[in-house]
Amino acid sequence: MAARTADICVIANPKSGAAQRNPGALDAAMAVFGPRAVLRKFSGDPAPQAEQAVRDGFRIIVAAGGDGTVAGVAHALAGTDSALAVLPLGTFNYFARGLQMPEDPEAAARAILSGQDHSIAVATLNGRLFLNNVSIGLYPAILEEREATYARFGRYRILAHLASLRTILRFQRPYRMLLELDETRRLVRTPMVFIARSAYQLDQFGLKGGEAISADRFALFLAQKQTRLGFLRLAWRLVRRRVDHDRDVQVLTPERIGITVLGRQRISVALDGEKLRMDLPLTIALSNDQLHVIVPPEKPLPAKAPPQGRGA
């Protein structure tokens, strides 16, 4: 009997949170995949490796890492026939949890082997794909502090929360922004804008907006708090899932978003847990390109029609 040709390419980030805490996790998953899979490691941006895997004809390309790794691989796969699968080896794994993928590496590998191909709409920020969220203001500063903490002490979830607290205590002044939301324009003053495309992540924090995301819109949150104490209270309410959607945040659900920060030409942006410097203005929209994803067979996502007439 002829050996089966590998049709799965696993792209691994050896510096992800869970990979460092559990160095045997990737090997365990590869043992489950067997001869169907080949492993390719990367450092930096995973997109070039994913693009090469598409050219090499792999049917399924597995992003083994955290949400940043998954977003980088997804950027290369959107609009292609190759399907994205996720081996959750990161710190929070919001996208994988939203797909209801098991967090155990071996169980996740078995779910990928028996999973179903499902197409989803994806969003872009100035042409760069994202899956979970985009934020400007306080959150990118939290990411910078978190990465510095990780570099000193290792990648642990509790350290991410402590880094958030430290950043809030050092909080400075809000931004003045011009927001273009579909056909409307508004001038706002806020320390943070958070734009979500993950209904799962919103549910974890007790936030509204999941229905808008299911309808291929965005859930945009403007922080109402302007002081350190106000932000500490907001963080505590988020942990307890008790955010007041009138007092703590303003929630908007546009299909397309433009952001200009007055007095700035570039700004730090948090995109799926990765900090970037980007030119202004920012344009956030759904892409015409669909993304194929593998979901567990017993956890199919609801069927949705492809978006019409949208671009980024």
Describe the structure.
The protein is an alpha+beta fold and 312 residues long. It has two domains: 8-122 and 289-295, Probable inorganic polyphosphate/atp-NAD kinase, domain 1 (Rossmann fold, 3-Layer(aba) Sandwich), CATH 3.40.50.10330; 133-271, Tumour Suppressor Smad4. Helix content is 32%, strand content 32%. It has helices spanning 17-21, 25-33, 47-55, 67-77, 94-98, 105-114, 138-153, 157-169, 199-204, 210-214, 228-239; strands spanning 8-12, 37-41, 60-65, 83-88, 116-125, 128-130, 133-137, 175-181, 184-190, 192-196, 219-223, 249-252, 256-261, 266-271, 274-279, 282-295. Strands 1, 2, 3, 4, 5, 6, 8, 9, 13 and 16 form a ten-stranded mixed sheet that branches. A hairpin with a 2-residue loop joins strand 8 (175-181) and strand 9 (184-190). Helix 2 (25-33) runs parallel beside helix 6 (105-114). The longest helix is centred in the middle third of the chain and has 16 residues, at 138-153. Residues 303-312 have low confidence and may be disordered.
